[in-house]
Each structure stands twice: as C-alpha cells, then as structure tokens.
Amino acid sequence: MNLNRTSAYFVLHAKSYMRSRSALFFQLAFPIILILLFGAIFSGSSYSPSTLIVQNESPSVASWGVVNAINESGLFKVHVIPENENLTKYITNNSVEAALLIPSNFTTNIYSGGKGYIMLEGHSNPTVASVDYQTLNGIFTEINFRSSNTTQKLVLSSQIAIGNTGKTINYYVPGLIGFTVLSTMFNMVYTVPNYRREKLFRQLSFSGLTKSEWITANMMFSFLMLILSDVILVAIGIYVFGASLVLNIQTILTSALIIFGGLFFFTSVGILAGLVSDNEETVSVVGNLVMFPMMFLSGVFFPLTFAPAYLVTISKFLPLTYFINSLISVLDYGNISSVALQILWLLLGSAILFIIAVTLFSWKQK
Amino acid sequence: MSENVIKVSNLVKSYSDVRAVDGISFSIERGEVFSILGPNGAGKTTTVEILEGVRNRTSGDVQVLGQDPEKSRSLVFKVGILPQDFSFVYNSTPKEALDFYKGTLRASSDLHEILEMVELEDKSSTPFQKLSGGQKQKLGLALSLVNNPEILFLDEPTSGLDPRARRNIWKVIKGLKDAGKSILLTTHYLEEAELLADRVAIMNKGKIIDSGRPMEIVERHHEDDNLIIRGDGEVERLLTAGGFLFHREGAYLKINLKSIKDATEIINYLYERKAAFEDFTLKRESLEDVFVRMIGAIEEDESE
Ligand SMILES: Nc1ncnc2c1ncn2[C@@H]1O[C@H](COP(=O)(O)OP(=O)(O)O)[C@@H](O)[C@H]1O
Ligand SMILES: [Mg+2]
After folding, report:
1. What are phi and psi of A101, to 5 degrees?
2. Strands (E) located in chain B
3. pLDDT tens digits for range A226-267
C-alpha cells in the first residue's frame, strides 16, 4: 500500500466522477428526492395523539402499569373499555383505528418470567397502523429499559424500535441513510466488469497502482460522498420535516462507524457480484436482484411491522436490516450500548467479507 | 558490443486448448526497434504481455533489463507500455491521466513536453470518450512515456486507425526511435514494420518463422521476378521453343526471370518472331508478397 499512488488515483477518480452526471444524480440527488418524497407523503401522519382503545383481560399491577405508561406518554388518549365487551364488535361498530388487547394470560406470563404479549388490533389504514404500532413499541421498549428486572419483557413484536416522538420522518432518515450505503454496492457492480472488459485494470497496473490501492481510493471517495449525502439527508430531515434525532458526538461517530462498516460490506458484495461475469448487464441484473429485495425487506421504505411473519424472518437474514436497526437505535434513541455488540459483529463480518472479495479479485490475466 | 535489453529463449505459453506461443527465442539490443510481424492470433500480444509482466509464461526464459518480469514488480517503473486496445477511465482527460501517471510513477517528466511530442496539447482537457481513435492512441503513447522509459512496448499501435492517424503515430514512433529508445513493436501491417523496424521477426501460430533486417528477409524468401504478358497459343509455343519457364494464368502468361535483365531478351525474342503479344509488365515480389506467402504456406502445411 502506497499512499502516494492511492491519493493520485483518488484525485483521478474524483475528477472523473464529478464529471459524471448520472453518478452524481444517484449519489446525491436521488436520496434527496426520496427524502423529500417520503417527508411530504408522511408529513401528515406526524404524531398527534390519537385515541387508543384498551381492553385489559388480565387486570393486575403490571398490566395497569403498562396502560398507565401509555397514557402518560401523551402519545395516545387511552380509552379503557370493560372486560366483558366484545372487542371485535366494538371495533366495527365504532370504526376504531387502534385497539390494544392485553390478553388474559398476560400477568401470569410476566410473573412466571416469560414474555407478556399484547395485541394491537382494528386498523384499516396500514400507514396509521404501522405508525401506531411503532409508537407503542417505542413506549414498551422504554418500559423494558426502565424495568430493573431484565427478564420481565413486554412484547408487541421484536421487530423495530421507534423514534422518541413517534414521527415517521425519524424512521425514514436512518432508512434512507441505509439506502445510500446500500447503493455504494453499485459503484463496484458496474465498475468491476466494465474495467475488466475495457482492460482498465491492466492499464492502471502500468501506472504501478495495485488493486488494494485502487479499492482503498475508491472506498475513501465513496465514504466522503456517503458522508456528504447523509449529512444532507439529516439536514433535510431536521430542517424541512422537523425530525428529532439524537445528535451528539457519540451518536455521530457511531453512525459514521456503522456507515463505514456498511460501505465495506456492500463494496465487497459489489466486487463479488462484479466477478460473477464480465457482462455489465448480467452483473447489473444480479446486483438488482440483491438490492431490491434487500431495500424492501430491510425496512428502507416502510417498516416491516405488519408484514407477514415469513418476510420478517427473511429480513433477519439481510445485513441491511441490521445496519438500519443500528442506525435507528443510535440516531433516534441515542442508544449505543444496546447495539454495540451488533455493530461489532457488522464490522467483523464486513471485514471478513472484504478480505474474501479482495482475495478473489485479481488484476492479473490468466 | 551492444547490450541486450530483452532476451527471450524458448518461451512457451499454453492456454487450455492452444499453444499461443510455441518456443520462441529472440533478443533486442539497446536503442533498437524490433518488430514482431504476424497475423491476428499469431501470439504477438501474448508474447508482449509476458514481457510486460501482465501474464505468466508456461516455460522458457525471459529477461527484461536483466530482470524476470514475472517476479519483478519494479519493472513497471522502467518500461513504457501501450497495450493493444488501449483504453482509459471514462470521463478522464489526457491532462488528468498524465498527472495521475506522474503521481504514481513519481516521475519528473515535463507533461507539457510529452503532450506536445504526441501532438495532443489541444485535446488535453477533453474527456477520454470524446477523443478520436488516433487521439486515444496518442494518449496511450503519452502515458507510456511519463516515466521516461528505457524500453517501450507498443502492441499494434495503429490497428484500426485511418491512414492519416496512422501516419501521425508513425511520426511519433520515429521520433522516439531517434531519441534512442529501445522499442518492441508488434504489428500485422507489413508497411509499418518495414518503415519503423531495424529488425523484424515474422511470427505465425506461436512460432517465429524468420527474423532479420526487412531486406534480408525479402532476399531470403522472395520468388524470382516475373514478366507477365498477354498472349495466345502461338506465343506459348514460341516460349516453349525458346526454353523459357512460364505458366498460364488466364489470358496472361507469367514468365519466370532468373534476372530482371532477362526481360528485354524475352521481349526481343518474341518481337523478332512477330508474335502477337501485348500488356507486358514486370513483377517483383515485395516484402508484403513474401510475408503473405510465408504465412499462407504455413497455413497450407497445417491443413494437410
Ligand atoms: N486468455 C486467453 N485464453 C485462451 N486463449 C487465448 C487467450 N488469449 C489469447 N489466446 C489465444 O492465443 C492465440 C494468440 O493470441 P494473441 O497473443 O492475442 O495473438 P495476436 O496478438 O498475435 O493477435 C490466439 O489463438 C488466441 O485465441
Ligand atoms: Mg494482439
């Protein structure tokens, strides 16, 4: 590794990149368009307290404590209905949007060290439903945090924690940051087969440049561009749509670390995809096959709280899910410690994948 | 005694199904332009790329500036390479490309001088993809010169260029030759080899068929000169009677000449006997004919 050569290539790459309108569009303009779009669509659903119908079939100190916490959060106007009421009928008759059922086994489960399940029912509009769901989940997460007994858990779903104010935009900022990290994969997906076909690696090797220097320069540049586009995303989120994120030196550095890990991860995936074939079209199909499911199933564009269980299961195998969840936890909650281990695994996994990709990636001709 | 900058002996390169280079040997002296002349698929690029260190060989010995290119990465800093199908980073300008090379090679060369030498000053800020074929090749040449190399590898530098662009490149190569560079030039254009090379190796199907100064090769391989006339059976009868060697090609008779002077003798002979002949031309083989025939002959041998 020679710093001199790496920076010489960095400059060459940066200048040619700046001249490419499509590259700039996808790197900078596209995420901005997406956040403006999402922000505009969901700005109406930013949280004003809505009525939450609660039916408690398991009256106890624990269950009423939960109901109380929901009420005190100010995020819902809690309206309790009697135990003997038929909830399903009540929902239909009163066009209830959100009703919470604390089932009869709740208290027993909690006191026997198990998990207390709570059901959210009665929604017609999936967006509202998902926002309510997230909000409740957020409240429960906080209750879980506060409770000293760690085995005592309230579970709505284990999927996603949500922002401190329950605003949708808080969710989309980390999601779109995840999207920008994911799309760096395409730098490699297009570049590797193209450079191989055009014999540009051979040409670059004549300058004394090595493949590690090439990859390093590329990643350094991608990282700068990522930081740039993500700063813009955060700024728009905050100043245009009033997102409330926890920004301090720790959360910013941790987010940068997560982004850096993501860059390693997706650059490696891009290199590996690029090695599959010399044909850019084939590779871009492969790339899109990886990217699109990942984008939708990792919760970039919408939370998976109401997705069928099998999709949620799939999402658990998608690395992007963890990048986004870590970012949500850090940026929306300022909660670093609970995802520290997860971040460590991400970095470790990315490093291993990166080593594999770099080893398989050869500039020499057969 | 002049020093060899490149030495190749019994070089072999096999791909899974072909022996692309089949036991060739040659050496190149300092300051010499050496050309490998051969048709497509002869094994020229494979040979050059082995010398450049881009490919590994199957067997044989190779030395470039006393080093084995397979093992010595530092060779890149001492040689200049214009590969076949030269291409560069999309959206990069010649100026940026040269700056990059200068940075990586830690060269002290004057980039403006190089741009001038290859006549590319006015295109120094044009993105690569907007350059013409000839201009691209000139950029490739310019890049190969940044480290002021002792040896230049030029692999088919003018293939696919129009005649004017080709002449332009030739001019630049001649300049480099005059500047004392050792050059390994591959080409399938005979004219190019004849014009630029001190010595030529004719390569076909992985083997060097012959090598030497271009004129030496013609001397060794050219067929006798011919006198070609248009004539009927009567002329044919007279030639047989006169003991001349000839054969018919359509309406024409192709008469073999031991010496070019024999031509007048034959014409006089026919004229005196009032033979009806016309359209006479003298035909001498060029290096091109020799080359085409040598390559053709080998191919016929193979097909037997
Ligand atoms: N990477 C490769 N794999 C298999 N065969 C190859 C490869 N590169 C070249 N060849 C074969 O080797 C022979 C020589 O090719 P090459 O050296 O490119 O010839 P030239 O440069 O004289 O046109 C050809 O038959 C070609 O098809
Ligand atoms: Mg070739």
Report:
1. -110, 120
2. 4-14, 19-29, 33-37, 59-64, 79-82, 151-155, 182-187, 199-204, 207-212, 225-231, 246-249, 252-257, 277-283
3. 999 999 999 998 988 888 888 999 999 999 999 999 999 999
| C-beta of residue B149 within 8 angstroms of C-beta of residue B78 | yes
Q: Which residue among B85, B87, B100 places its CB closest to the CB of A207?
A: B100
Q: Note whether A5 contacts B91, CB cutoff 8 Å.
A: no
Q: Give the number of residues written for chain A.
A: 366
Q: How deeply is B4 buried, as exposed, middle or buried, from its count of CB atoms within 10 A (0-12, 13-18, 19+)?
A: middle
* pLDDT tens per residue, range A107-120: 887 777 666 667 77
User: CB contact, 8 Å: B92 with chain A?
Assistant: yes
Instruction: Check CB contact of A211 with chain B, cutoff 8 Å.
Output: no
- Helix then strand then coil, % of chain B, to nearest 5: 40, 30, 35
Domains and their CATH numbers in chain A: 50-160 (3.40.1710.10), 169-360 (no CATH)
Contacts of B217 (CB under 8 A, 6+ apart): B200, B202, B210, B211, B287, B290
> How far does the centroid of ligand 1 lie from the alpha carbon of residue B46, in Å?
6
Q: Please identify every stretch of chain A with a pLDDT value under 50, giving residue numbers as ranges.
A: 46-47, 123-125, 150-151, 157-165
Using a 6 Å cutoff on CB, does residue B41 contact ligand 1? yes
Q: Give the pLDDT score at A260.
A: 93
CA B207 to chain CA centroid, Å, is 15
pLDDT value for A335:
81
Ligand 1 neighbourhood includes B18 CB (under 6 angstroms):
yes
C-beta of residue A27 within 8 angstroms of C-beta of residue A229: yes
CA end-to-end distance (rounded Å), chain A? 24
Rounded-to-integer distance, Cα A121 and Cα A318, Å: 28
What distances in angstroms separate CA A346 from CA A159, A166, B78, one per listed residue? 18, 27, 43
Instruction: Take residue B169 and report the two structure tokens written for it.
Output: 């490149």
Of residues B15, B56, B81, nearest to A206 (C-beta): B81
